[in-house]
Structures are given as structure tokens and as C-alpha cells.
Amino acid sequence: MTAAYRFNPAFQSPQGSPIRELFKYTQQPGMISFAGGYPAPALFDAEALARSAAAVLEQSPAACLQYGATEGTALLAQVLRQLTRERIGGAGEVGELIVTTGSQQGFELLLRVMLTAGDCVAIERPCYPAAIQALRLAGAQLLEVPGDEEGMDTDALEQLLLGGARPRLLYVVPTFANPTGATLPLARRRHLLALAVRYQFLVIEDDPYGQLRFSGEVQPPLLQVAQEIPGAADWLVYLSSLSKVVAPGLRIGWMCGSPEILRRAVIAKQTGDLCTAPWMQMAAARYLADGCLEAHLPAIIATYRERCEIMLDALRRAFGDALSLIAPEGGMFIWASWNDGTDASALLHEAVRQNVMYVPGAAFYAQDADAARLRLSFTNAQPQQIVEGVSRLQQAHRQWRHTQP
């Protein structure tokens, strides 16, 4: 007899991560994956990280191996504060700062601290799937704000607000968004923060990719723009991570914002993991303080620039006008749309048979998904794999089209 467990209603029929669900196919022999937003393993600065980890363990074994402060080690907090100041051009203060176990934990802590089930949260359409998943489990009502090639349409957001929408939070990746790769222009950044002040909703700026720019004009983080707008700093929390620029296995993220918010986030974190792994924190602090990231980042950017250009060229050659593309100025993703009636989710089954993968766009919508959309990541494949993978996708597309009535 099956046990009659009583689950939290949010977990009665939960939906897993649509991207994680694809992971099983990556184990298929010979698979070329454009699916996960994974950094290139060959670009991990493993030797420098190993030296940093060994050095701090030798110097401070007890501090590395004992429990640490929930807020993060003092040294890493200091280093991350300086790193964040550099990102905002030394303009103003970054607010309170705490270390998190990846930026995803920072987001979840904010949901625990700020949300009650039924509250409205604004997100860009399309949006990062893990954010949608976390918000649904928190019981949030999702307000999708249309986006375009320049990110969230803040004029559309204003119309929603004028129409009576009252979000408690707004989540946005303003620089190289996941999945679109779009970057919010400065005028929209100012407009968004002005709306946050006027309507008093908290903006969560997620900035995991901002350092991966390989073309175009640098846009200031919202954290910097907020210094220009009276009251805006009170309505902004900044999240970032070392996952995309150093290594996701470190699980090092951080959040900056109002002391009132972050004090409560620390209490929420105490009931979760107690603290982010002290050894990894101290190794990351040493790595950053020694200038290793600054020295290594140009190689990462150059590699991703090349791979992005190769993928864009291969896709254009293979599909021409049948596939529209957003060419990103950085980050890890290309957002595409079929113009010939192809259903990206249906095509994936044939693509897997051809040993190539991507993420169908349906994963990035809270409702009424656009079946024509798909996301491709160029970071975790060698140039020759990109060319071969696009060729396989072209073959899959031909096969799938041939079977359609």
C-alpha cells in the first residue's frame, strides 16, 4: 500500500527544472549540447584556484574547516565589496553585503523574507526558469512584462502599473539576460528604478553575466544607476556570483542591499545552510585578492566571443531567414525563433536522435509559451563541435519538417 503523505501544497505536484530535466540526454554518447548555461571547463583557472585553496588551508586550517559566520567570512566580504565598487565605477556605496551559496540562494532568501503567498511579482517575458520555479513554489502571482531585443519593456511595465498592477518584487537580469542575451539600455534602467520608487516595489537585479562582455558599450549596473535617482537605492537588491566567471563548483554568490532586508536574509540563511563553505570562501577571497580573476577574465571573454561568432555564422548559413536570432553583446546565450512554423519542443525529440541539444523556449515562460523559441548556449562547446552541432540541428530540422503534414 502506498503511503498517504501530506505534502506542502506547493510540493503536491511540483514541476522540476525544465533544463535539469534535459541533463539525462547529455550522458548520451556523442551528444553535443547547446542546452545548459555551463562555463567552459577548459577555462576553469584550476591551477590558481588549487594554489589559493592550498595556501589558505595551510595558513588557517581551523578557519577553513570550522563553521563560519552566516554573513560570510570578513575577508571575502571585503574583497567582494571592493569588486562590486569597481563594477559601479566607484560611484557611491554598495550597501550591506552578505555572502550566499550561489546567487540563487540570495534570490530564495529574498522570497522567504519579502513574500507572502499570493503576492504579485513582476518578471520579464521570457525569464530565467529557476526564478519562475522558485516563485511558483513561494506561491507568488506572476506578472509577465513583455521584453524585446533590448530587454524588459519598461513602458509596458508602466502601463501595467497604471492599470492597477502592484508587484511586491520585480526580478530582472538587465545585462545579457537569460535566455535572450539582451541588455537593458540606460534609459530603461533609469525608467525602471524611477517606477520602483514611485510604486514602491523592490527590484532584484541579478548580475551573473555582466563581466562577460565581448562587444558593444558597457552599461552600468542598476546598483550604479540607483545612485542617481533619489530613493532608488532603498528599492534595489543586487545579486551576483562567481559561478559564470570563476567556477560554479565554488558556490559563491553575494547580495547587496538595505541593512533591514539583509539582516532578515541572514536569519533566513541561518535556518538553511548555516553558512557558505568557509574553505571555499577563503580560497575565493585569496584568488580574487591576488588578481587572478582580473588576469584570467580576458581569456574567457575572447573564447566566448569566438564561440558566439562561430555559432551565429553557422546558424545563419544553415537556416537563413527560417530562423531569427538575437546576437548578444556578451553572456552565454543566443535566443532564436523559428519563422517557418517549427515547434521547438517537438523538434527537440528529433534533435536528440541526431545527438544535439538545446532548450525549447517553452521553459522560459510562466504561461502562453511561444512554441517557436529556443535558447542555445555557445560557451561549453569547442568551435568544431559548434559547427558539427549546428549541422546536426539542420539535419534534425529537415527530418522533422519532412514528417509534417
Q: Would you mind describing this structure in some detail?
A:
This protein is an alpha/beta fold and 405 residues long. 41% of the residues lie in helices and 15% in strands. The chain contains 14 helices and 14 strands. The protein has helices spanning 23-26, 46-59, 61-65, 74-87, 103-114, 129-137, 154-162, 186-199, 222-225, 259-270, 278-289, 292-319, 344-353, 383-403; strands spanning 32-33, 96-100, 120-125, 141-148, 151-152, 169-172, 202-206, 236-241, 253-257, 323-326, 333-338, 356-357, 359-360, 373-377. It has an eight-stranded mixed sheet, with helices on both faces. Strands 10-11-14-13 form a four-stranded antiparallel sheet. Helix 6 (129-137) links the parallel strand 3 (120-125) and strand 4. It is globular and about 60 Å long. The N and C termini lie far apart (46 Å). The model has no long low-confidence stretch (mean pLDDT 95).
